[in-house]
Amino acid sequence: MPHVLAPFRVVFVCTGNICRSPMAEIVFRDVAERAGLGDHVVSSSSGTGDWHVGERADVRTIEALHRRGYDGEHHRARQFTLADFDRNDLVVALDRSHERILTSWARTNDDVDKLALLLSFAPSVGDGWDVPDPYYAGPAMFDEVLAMIESASRALFRQLEPAIRPSSPRLET
Question: For residues 35 and 107, what is the distance between their CA atoms, to the nearest angstrom?
Answer without folding.
Answer: 34
